[in-house]
């Protein structure tokens, strides 16, 4: 039997505890599949005493994750603390510096420091892997970076935040409003006490930025992701979308064209009867289009102890088997800084606005849209409530520039009582 | 730049031509992602002159695939000829013997000789990889063998034959009968001139046997797959299933329990609104359940030039990166010969039979079912046609043993005019 692969674990929250459980439950299986025994040597967490449902006595303890990362008695650091900077970043840097492989579930850290960390890991000849950072238990990093690696990737698209999808699904299914469902999601542990990373789209945008880098061979460009949360989506929007044959999803889309790399994480309308439209609850789904393979679709649990720990350990097994390739599928130095392209393609949009209930208002709005080059496919106006009449427009495909022109102009009209909201209708 | 990885291709049909196209189209991409240039050195096929839409002048030609496999100027043999024995097997054996890695799309060969070939490859220290053998462009071998490798796999299930799914989809959608749609599938190139491997379930059973070995760490046991084709499925069955909320799919299910390994590739009823029920046309889908990850779902093109070549080249890139692990995820010597378990769990069944149209017939049939322990949930009898009355039963969950007892007894009754057909209702 070859030497065991020795692990140090920084962070013993949900994911860390799950990893310990897998290692303890599946020792034989992991040894057979990894070609060598997998052993935990040392661990680190904020609180030593906390009950985690796993025995930790056999492992060395470190209070400081950086001290853990610098130990000389293990081979792979599992960074499962989270946080884009601070101890997580310091521990990963220390691990790479001391010649250890790194497996992390930390999308925020990689979205900000992925390029630098990939360069450092390559220079040191160690692996930097992050299957668990994107779409939980779905092996999408592996599918995109290895399984579809012979393709020119055209588009990566998906629902990558279970909290948002849970909220939107429940709003649609029960007619419950945003605040009510968010509170419930927090009670069930789906949403953090500070939900802004989730509902604001930032968490999902982190993930999209990683998949884009991997798929397109570009440098991680999180700042280039056009990000919009779900907090402005109302029950009205959900009901109108449903009525027109659509569901609203927080949808990530990354695509490469001559104009450059387009990255969006925004609420979009997708057909009710599409795979993404049907996606309910906390499940994640990712669709990848390649020039030879065509469209492939991946679905599964996007978070949780078991799924995330499964992804972490898949990376560990790859390292055990000797897979020490570059983090983003190609040498870090070869990753290009692609120009940013905003909404390169034309799309239909759903518009919602509140209009002053007076003769001629609708004509003025319609004229403004037309003059900006935005053509209307469907329009609905409803009974007014206290002088304000809600109006819904579905446009024909239009460029984002024309739409922005129209939105700007409408926003400045006295007939328009609020800033109009626009949601893209995505082709899936 | 490190040494190029040199390929020899045996077989230049649809898949082989697709592989040549990828190598010629994506030279830079493959070099970046594989960490070294990928070069075709020599090729072999039955007809040298045939137009394949790709330039082959730069490659050495061999008439004999075994002579190709024995050349000493390349590193990886791509076996893309097909056929469970004969030249394909001989070429693979010659390649392994002469120290070459093997990538194959040949499910029939591996279903029969996978264990011996895996042992030979391991003994010689070369890779034997077969992503293209199962579910075309979907990287399911990678997902199951690597992405979910930290899990105890509980069940692998899927629709893995595009031809059958196309036929069943078209029968359902257009009310066209089996023979008509089969002829159309042959015209479109979806089905072979001899369709028996497809519609008989054998092709899909080959694939299931490979996934089962990979998922459960067992020796490939193709003979242990309970296989039934779709040729007995009628429009009547499809219409009744639809009416009761089900679609009929040629569904593969492999699961491991205390009783042993259960492998089935049979037409089953699945809920209309499930992911598998909605699967239309030639698309494939596979669902994998693991003890930590839960259920994950994979969908994409199951055949065709681009998708299959994409899968072949993913294996080539893995070899370029140095991934030379055992073929079935664990050392071949460690793969166990699991006992065969037939239909270990209880299930509901759809029964169709033709009854003699006479007083008391139905009572006798119902009594026979009851006495064998099969309880009826729904029953429909229709206007008789020339003395024969078609009858449809949906049972409550029952063991396969009880069902077989009932079927045997019904088959022997003079009131039963044909051998009753039973389709399992699968829980998805």
Automatic annotation (TrEMBL), chains A, B:
<dbReference type="Pfam" id="PF03447">
    <property type="entry name" value="NAD_binding_3"/>
</dbReference>
<keyword id="KW-0560">Oxidoreductase</keyword>
<dbReference type="GO" id="GO:0004412">
    <property type="term" value="F:homoserine dehydrogenase activity"/>
</dbReference>
<keyword id="KW-0791">Threonine biosynthesis</keyword>
<dbReference type="InterPro" id="IPR002912">
    <property type="entry name" value="ACT_dom"/>
</dbReference>
<dbReference type="InterPro" id="IPR016204">
    <property type="entry name" value="HDH"/>
</dbReference>
<feature type="domain" description="ACT">
    <location>
        <begin position="350"/>
        <end position="428"/>
    </location>
</feature>
<feature type="binding site">
    <location>
        <begin position="10"/>
        <end position="17"/>
    </location>
    <ligand>
        <name>NADP(+)</name>
    </ligand>
</feature>
<dbReference type="InterPro" id="IPR001342">
    <property type="entry name" value="HDH_cat"/>
</dbReference>
<dbReference type="Pfam" id="PF01842">
    <property type="entry name" value="ACT"/>
</dbReference>
<dbReference type="InterPro" id="IPR019811">
    <property type="entry name" value="HDH_CS"/>
</dbReference>
<dbReference type="InterPro" id="IPR005106">
    <property type="entry name" value="Asp/hSer_DH_NAD-bd"/>
</dbReference>
<dbReference type="GO" id="GO:0009086">
    <property type="term" value="P:methionine biosynthetic process"/>
</dbReference>
<feature type="binding site">
    <location>
        <position position="107"/>
    </location>
    <ligand>
        <name>NADPH</name>
    </ligand>
</feature>
<dbReference type="InterPro" id="IPR045865">
    <property type="entry name" value="ACT-like_dom_sf"/>
</dbReference>
<comment type="pathway">
    <text>Amino-acid biosynthesis; L-methionine biosynthesis via de novo pathway; L-homoserine from L-aspartate: step 3/3.</text>
</comment>
<dbReference type="Pfam" id="PF00742">
    <property type="entry name" value="Homoserine_dh"/>
</dbReference>
<keyword id="KW-0521">NADP</keyword>
<dbReference type="GO" id="GO:0009088">
    <property type="term" value="P:threonine biosynthetic process"/>
</dbReference>
<comment type="similarity">
    <text>Belongs to the homoserine dehydrogenase family.</text>
</comment>
<dbReference type="InterPro" id="IPR036291">
    <property type="entry name" value="NAD(P)-bd_dom_sf"/>
</dbReference>
<keyword id="KW-0486">Methionine biosynthesis</keyword>
<feature type="binding site">
    <location>
        <position position="192"/>
    </location>
    <ligand>
        <name>L-homoserine</name>
    </ligand>
</feature>
<comment type="pathway">
    <text>Amino-acid biosynthesis; L-threonine biosynthesis; L-threonine from L-aspartate: step 3/5.</text>
</comment>
<feature type="active site" description="Proton donor">
    <location>
        <position position="207"/>
    </location>
</feature>
<protein>
    <recommendedName>
        <fullName>Homoserine dehydrogenase</fullName>
        <ecNumber>1.1.1.3</ecNumber>
    </recommendedName>
</protein>
<keyword id="KW-0028">Amino-acid biosynthesis</keyword>
<dbReference type="GO" id="GO:0050661">
    <property type="term" value="F:NADP binding"/>
</dbReference>
């Amino acid at each position: 039997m070859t030497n065991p692969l020795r692990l140090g674990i920084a962070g013993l929250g949900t994911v860390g505890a799950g990893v310990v459980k897998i290692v303890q439950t599946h020792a034989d299986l992991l040894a057979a599949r990894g070609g060598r025994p997998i052993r935990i040597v040392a661990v680190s967490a904020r609180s030593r005493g906390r009950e985690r449902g796993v025995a930790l006595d056999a492992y060395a303890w470190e209070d400081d994750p950086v001290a853990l990362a610098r130990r000389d008695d293990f081979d792979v650091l599992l960074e499962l603390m989270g946080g884009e900077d601070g101890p997580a970043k310091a521990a990963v840097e220390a691990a790479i510096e001391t010649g250890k492989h790194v497996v992390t579930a930390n999308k925020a850290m990689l979205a900000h420091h992925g390029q630098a960390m990939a360069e450092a890991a390559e220079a040191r000849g160690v692996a930097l892997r992050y299957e668990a950072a994107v779409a939980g238990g779905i092996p999408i990093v592996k599918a995109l970076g290895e399984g579809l690696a012979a393709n020119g990737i055209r588009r990566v698209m998906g629902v990558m935040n279970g909290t948002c999808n849970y909220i939107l699904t429940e709003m649609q299914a029960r007619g419950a409003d945003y605040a009510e469902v968010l509170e419930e999601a927090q009670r069930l542990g789906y949403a953090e006490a500070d939900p802004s990373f989730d509902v604001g789209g930032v968490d999902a945008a982190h993930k999209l930025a990683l998949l884009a880098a991997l798929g397109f061979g570009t440098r991680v460009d999180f700042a280039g992701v056009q990000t919009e949360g779900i907090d402005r989506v109302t029950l009205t929007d959900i009901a109108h979308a449903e009525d027109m044959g659509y569901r609203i999803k927080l949808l990530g889309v990354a695509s490469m064209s001559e104009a450059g790399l387009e990255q969006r994480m925004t609420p979009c309308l997708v057909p009710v009867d599409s795979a993404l439209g049907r996606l309910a609850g906390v499940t994640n789904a990712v669709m990848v289009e390649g020039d030879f393979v065509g469209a492939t679709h991946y679905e599964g649990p996007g978070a949780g102890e078991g799924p995330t720990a499964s992804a972490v350990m898949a990376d560990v097994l790859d390292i055990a088997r000797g897979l020490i390739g570059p983090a983003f599928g190609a040498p870090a130095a070869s990753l290009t800084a692609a120009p940013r392209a905003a909404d390169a393609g034309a799309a239909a949009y759903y518009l919602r606005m509140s209009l002053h209930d007076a003769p001629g208002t609708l004509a003025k709005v319609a004229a403004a849209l037309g003059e900006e080059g935005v053509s209307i496919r469907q329009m609905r106006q409803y009974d007014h409530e206290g002088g304000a009449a809600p109006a819904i427009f579905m446009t024909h495909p239009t460029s984002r520039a024309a739409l922005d022109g129209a939105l700007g102009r409408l926003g400045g009209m006295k007939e328009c009582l609020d800033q109009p909201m626009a949601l893209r209708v995505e082709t899936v």
